[in-house]
Model the fold of this input.
Amino acid sequence: MIKLRLKRYGKKRSPSYRIVAMNSRDRRDGRPLEELGFYNPMTDEIKLNTESIVARLKTGAQPTDTVRRILEKANILEQVRA
Done:
């Protein structure tokens, strides 16, 4: 199963994350199928590749809870439902 989840990078105590599409059985920092965006919780900066995310969601990829909240904030899940 393909999951949309966060992949951590950055220094200690200053995390930033990439939103990636990965096989659900792969480890957190493993090689992703595709990088879909960026999230920095310290500055609340979000950059998303909307077209790729919508395409992945339409093919059955499941977002994790945190990624789902990020996508709802950016109104991307509404595009999939429409």
User: Anything to note?
Assistant: The chain has one domain: 2-81. Strands lie at 2-11, 14-23, 34-40, 45-48, 62-63. The longest helix spans residues 50-58. The chain has a mean pLDDT of 93.
